[in-house]
Amino acid sequence: MKIIIALALLFVFCFPAFSQNNQNLAEKLGFDRNAKLLIIHADDMGLSQATNNAVIQAFQKGGITSGSIMVPCPWFSDIAEFAKNNTQFDIGIHLTLTSEWDSYFFGGVSPASAIPNLLNQKGYFYPSVEEFAKHANGAEVEKEIRAQIERALAFGIKPTHLDNHMGTILASPEYYQILLKMGHEYRLPVLIPADMIAGVSTQLLEMLSRDNVVVDHLFMLNQASPAKQWGEPYLKFIENMKPGLNEIIVHLAIDNDETRAIMVNHPDFGAEWRQHDLDFVLSPEFKKALNEYNIKLVTWRQIGEVQYPK
Fold this sequence. Notes:
The protein is an alpha/beta fold. The protein has a single domain, classed as TIM Barrel. It contains 14 helices and 7 strands. α6 packs parallel to α7 (about 175-185). The protein is globular, with a radius of gyration of 19 Å. It starts with a helix and ends with a helix. About 45% of the residues are buried. This is Cellobiose phosphotransferase system YdjC-like protein. It comes from Aquipluma nitroreducens.
């Protein structure tokens, strides 16, 4: 109950854009005040060639409105070239501090000697949020986050926002403060999932300033459905969507030998899962539901223009 009250007070006192006397985000973006805004976002660009190809296909066919790149991953340079040459697509940075696969690993962009507490004995990121939280410290987290942003910029990417792989930043209020600071410094909106944060820590809520834009409701599959019913949880979220800013996170890849090798022993978020997500965002039933429930698709670029006007 305290968390709910804190969240309510946050919106009343810290977010004047949501009060009755000012334009809210929807109005600033040119929609009705009670519009249901939705970002359809693909994580993990750069993870593999199959991931890159799937996300590019989804962008080109209008299945998603946003995506974000894992800078430390082996296929980063491939997707960086695409992002540099296709600035019409909304692409941010998926800040990465974990490496979760059984036989496919990545470490930091920073020299290993600069971030020793973020790396295991083999020089790679730890595979879980729990192990990351046990070893990490704020100075090294900030150093690596900054290095990933700077590398993306050096490759010609003009990122539209910052988000975070596996939610590692939520492991500590200190790390979330670093992320918010990076957003302000680089003038980029940060994914702030209000409902998720409210369930983690009131300290995180208290860090938000009046110019932060929050995602009111974030939805992501955490459990696989039977293939024939794969889209039902997404469709239910759309059917029950509330006014405000919403985001659906999907994980896309082509189910091929590369994806199956990377994601071996990982049925959750694995090769079949990612192919199902791709098929769903490109499906006629998904587009039909968006139209039927009058969902207004938006991008992080649009939000950035509101949050950090030129």
